[in-house]
Specification:
This protein has 20 helices and 29 strands. It has 595 residues and is of the alpha+beta class. The strands form 7 sheets. Strands 11, 15, 16, 17, 18, 19, 20, 21 and 24 form a 9-stranded mixed β-sheet that branches. Strand 2 and strand 3 form a beta hairpin. The longest helix has 20 residues, at 15-34. It binds one RNA strand of 75 nucleotides through strand 7, strand 8, helix 7, helix 10 and helix 18.
RNA sequence: GCUGCUGUGGCUCAGAGGUAGAGCACUUCCUUGGUAAGGAAGAGGUCAUGGGUUCAAUUCCCAUCAGCAGCUCCA
């Protein structure tokens, strides 16, 4: 690892990175001026900005201090100090930072243990840093402090916890404003807010991390589930249903008990409890499943398998429970109970490429349907953490890469990132604000077939070990819906919208006609409701508009007489009067959808 | 789990050491209105939970729970 990577991770020598990194130094300088007893740790650049981890003796910075810090930073920038690089010997550097009471810098010097260190200085501020930086502080005018949080020194829970201040920094005012606007936009689209405003889902402290799907949200869930189901059948999958609770024996066999126990919800063995033990290690200790794979292994083993049956593809949308740390829970993004569009493929070695290829094609079909670009990451063997034979790994990794290449997919390799049981291809999808989310994954598993002693009989009547492929495309429904809510900002395409058409009678006189229209729509599977409140048409339009319903039908005497409807579309507020039949056809067409 | 912040009627929030207020929503009534908020009246909260300090706490302190921003974790 090069020195620069080690000193301040994430620094690249592009102008914007320099600006951001330099802004981090300026912030550190400002804070040191305001609170001289500040101990600095690391201050790297990150996407769109920077942070600095630090600790102030006897003081806890709050967001209220940001104005003060920004003001001081502006002073530093106005002074237009020069960033000057110099070198220090190991001994000098130690001495220097000792004098300045910077224990974290000293720790870093000792850890690096180099002959000489590069030092950056601007005015009265000096930092251990490999750079690079801009030449003058004036280049960092367009910044804003954004956020505050805790972070452990060197990201290790055993180390002291520091305060981390996040900021953003840009090369021009326009870019800064644009970025801040983006942040605002993202805030408006926050699925937790929209989930409430559009009545999609709710949470209760009686079931932390578990979603209550309201009728609208349930429609989203069901539609996604239904379309995915049809698609999976089309792609040769068989849907199965499996228990959610298993004896711990199963988890011992799969290896989850050893590796994943802390994240599992365990149901005590009451006999053990009555004997005074904690109930987690008895013969009748059970656990809610955190994954579907072991039950699919059992199903595979239910009978002798022939090579003629392979590949076998079990699709399972069973309920999973993972006991995530309380602090990790967040809206639909991180929950304790969820369902995946999960599947396990049992394949021969020679079928790996073809099957992975099919999976990637499915991923492409699905994400393209949502207008979401995506990118693949191939994770390869971690030499310190893998099981099985190197040759098998090498071959599998090559197979995966070949598939990516031949498919013409954009991909990167993340070395050493594979799970111990096999290499994998993760997929990052990008939403309409350009934010990436990890959803789909395709993982080869050489280990589970061994743990469960899976075999099939080949052409020569030999028992042969199959390979298992774990894969999911949406990932979890919960998280994927969260992403879609933000991606569409709640403006779901017609086929997915919980309510597709809202019928707005202008007065009670047309309620009968409104009900008739709604009934006809429902009869052809168009999700519609009548707003029969005694409110003005203005009010009805306003409120249903805010509910982001694709089509609002305004019905009055004129429409009733001519048996027409006047619809107002969500996208451009344009309106048009057409016959009820025409409207039905139009929406029915938009309602057609398949992957 | 860790650090910090937050927790007031369904929602968004204001407020003060002496047992609470606004807007929206809700209920009732009037209004039957043609493209983004018609009008009036009313009901609703022991201020997350449990301790402590105090003559007195919802307001101060501690703990717990939940949420938020991160960290860590995500075989």
């Amino acid at each position: 690892m090069s020195e620069s990577e080690f000193l301040e991770p994430g620094i690249e020598d592009t102008p914007l990175e320099k600006v951001r990194h330099s802004t981090a130094h300026i912030m550190a300088q400002a804070i040191l001026r305001l609170w001289p007893n500040t101990q600095l740790a690391f201050g790297p650049t990150i996407e769109n900005g920077f942070y600095y981890d630090l600790k102030i003796e006897d003081y806890q910075i709050s967001m209220d201090d940001f104005e003060k810090i920004e003001l001081e930073m502006k002073k530093v920038i106005k002074e237009n100090l020069k960033f000057e690089r110099s070198e220090m010997s190991h001994a000098d550097a130690l001495e220097y930072f000792k004098e300045r009471n910077q224990p974290f810098k000293i720790d870093q010097i000792e850890k690096l243990n180099l002959k000489s260190y590069s030092i950056y200085k601007q005015g009265d501020f000096t930092d251990l840093c490999s750079g690079p930086h801009v030449n003058y502080t004036k280049k960092c005018k367009h910044f804003k402090l954004l956020n505050l949080s805790g972070a452990y020194f060197r990201a290790d829970t055993n180390n002291p916890q520091l305060q981390r201040i996040y900021g953003t920094s840009w090369d021009s005012k326009e870019n800064l404003v644009k970025h801040l606007f983006q942040l605002e936009e993202a805030k408006k689209r926050d699925h937790r807010k929209l989930g409430q405003a559009l009545e999609l889902f709710e949470f209760h402290e009686e079931a932390p991390g578990c979603v209550f799907w309201q009728p609208n949200g349930t429609t989203l869930y069901e539609k996604l589930s239904e379309k995915s189901k049809v698609f999976h059948i089309k792609c040769g999958y068989q849907e199965v249903r499996t228990p959610i609770m298993f004896n711990k024996k199963l988890w011992e066999k799969s290896g989850h008990w050893e590796h994943y126990k802390d994240d599992m919800f365990i149901i005590n063995d009451m006999d053990e409890v009555s004997e005074g033990r904690d109930g987690t290690e008895g013969p009748n200790t059970m656990s809610l499943k955190p994954m579907n794979c072991p039950s699919h292994m059992l199903m595979y083993k239910n009978k002798k398998r022939s090579y003629k049956e392979l590949p076998i593809r079990f699709h399972d949308k069973g309920v999973l429970h993972r006991n995530e740390l309380s602090g990790a829970l967040s809206g639909l993004t991180r929950v304790r109970q969820f369902c995946q569009d999960d599947a396990h493929l049992f394949v021969r070695n020679s079928q790996i490429e073809e099957e992975v290829n099919k999976v990637l094609a499915m991923i492409k079909s699905i994400y393209s349907a949502f207008d979401m670009p995506f990118k693949f990451y191939l994770s390869t063997r971690n030499p310190n953490k893998f099981m099985g034979e190197i040759e098998v790994w090498d071959k599998a990794e090559k197979a995966l890469e070949d598939v990516l290449k031949q498919g013409g997919f954009e991909y990167e390799i993340t070395p050493n990132d594979a799970a111990f049981y096999g290499p994998k291809i993760d997929c990052i999808v990008y939403d309409s604000l350009g934010r990436g989310h990890q959803c789909a994954t395709t993982q080869l598993d050489f280990q589970l077939p061994i743990n469960f002693d899976l075999t099939y009989v080949d052409e020569a009547s030999n028992d042969v070990r199959p390979v298992v492929i774990h894969r999911a495309i949406y990932g979890s429904f919960e998280r994927f819906i969260g992403i879609l809510i933000e991606h569409y900002a709640g403006n779901f395409p017609t086929w997915l919208a919980p309510v597709q058409v809202k019928v707005l009678p202008i007065s009670e006189k047309v309620h009968e006609y409104a009900n008739k229209v709604q009934e006809e729509l429902i009869n052809i599977d168009i999700r519609s409701e009548v707003d029969s409140r005694s409110e003005t048409i203005n009010m009805k339009i306003r409120e249903n508009k805010m509910k982001k319903i694709p089509y609002l039908l305004v019905l009055g005497g004129k429409e009733e007489e001519a048996q027409t409807v006047t619809f107002r579309s969500r996208e451009d507020d344009s309106q048009q009067t057409i016959s009820l039949e025409e409207f039905k056809n139009k929406i029915a067409k938009e309602n057609e959808f398949s992957f």
